[in-house]
Design goal:
The structure is a homodimer. The first copy, chain A, has a single domain, classed as Arc Repressor Mutant, subunit A (Orthogonal Bundle). Chain A is mostly helical. The two termini of chain A are 35 Å apart. Chain A is 54% helix and 12% strand. In chain A, a hairpin with a 5-residue loop joins strand 2 and strand 3. Chains A and B meet through helix 1, helix 2 and helix 6 of A and helix 1, helix 2 and helix 6 of B. The first copy, chain A, binds a DNA duplex through helix 3 and helix 4. Chains A, B: It comes from Paenibacillus aurantius. Chains A, B: GO terms for molecular function: DNA binding. Chains A, B: InterPro entries: HTH_HxlR, WH-like_DNA-bd_sf, WH_DNA-bd_sf. Chains A, B: This is Helix-turn-helix domain-containing protein.
Chain lengths: 119, 119
DNA sequence: CGGAATCCGATTAGATACTG
DNA sequence: CAGTATCTAATCGGATTCCG
């Protein structure tokens, strides 16, 4: 069964896993996307919702998501000024993927913790 | 519509996204899991399959996966010695999650690249 | 063969201070 | 309010060397 021939190389530059992770893998990206799920949200509100994020990291995360076409940024010239962030359709297409990750964690993360303790 | 009440805080320590990413988020983990998909594989074979990985990073990645209960390590006292790595059931439970990530990348990554070029 | 240990340069991220 | 700029501590990862 399963006669393994020579598989092609597994490469960070070509593999789909790595491409998805290139976008999702940092500490704050998934949390920021989650904060924008279903609503437009102001910078300050997002910052206060995401526990522990610095304004530097929030700005950096949002800039990258905007550059990648996942997030839309709208500036309002009010006094004081406000900025609203929301997901583009491309950004929304990531939500099911994140949902699956969350489902896995909810179902299996306790097993990981038990494995760690068993050392 | 969608009258947003005060949502609970979004925290890296508590959020399911972050728990899953804590395991998957580094550069090599997903590729290593992919290499073990469906088969037991020797250290050296894995190293040669995964383009660009150093032995330090491969060992580090595998040690962490083993500690987390996702990977099984078997040492054979042959001459020369050999070590086989394979996924545990817990590790296999991650495969559908990774598959989803790959599917997203295959379907949407080109849009990300186009967004980047449009700057 | 399959590692562990050390060294060291590069990247990262928090804190702080300043601005339109 | 929503950033930008700078500095610095810590972490990361590649290369190298040595071991069972």
């Amino acid at each position: 069964m399963t006669p393994e021939g020579k598989k092609p190389d597994i490469s960070p530059a070509l593999c789909g896993y790595s491409k998805a992770l290139e976008i999702l893998s940092d500490k704050w990206t998934a949390l920021a996307i989650h904060a924008m799920d279903g609503e437009s949200i102001r910078y300050g509100v997002m910052k206060s919702r995401i526990s522990g994020i610095s304004q530097k990291m929030l700005t950096q995360t949002l800039r990258r998501l905007e550059r990648d076409g996942l997030v839309r940024r709208e500036v309002f010239a009010t006094v004081p000024p406000s900025t609203e962030y929301s997901l583009t359709p491309l950004g929304e297409s990531l939500l099911p993927v994140l949902k699956r990750m969350k489902e896995w964690a909810d179902a299996h993360y306790s097993s990981v913790e038990r494995a760690r303790e068993a050392l």
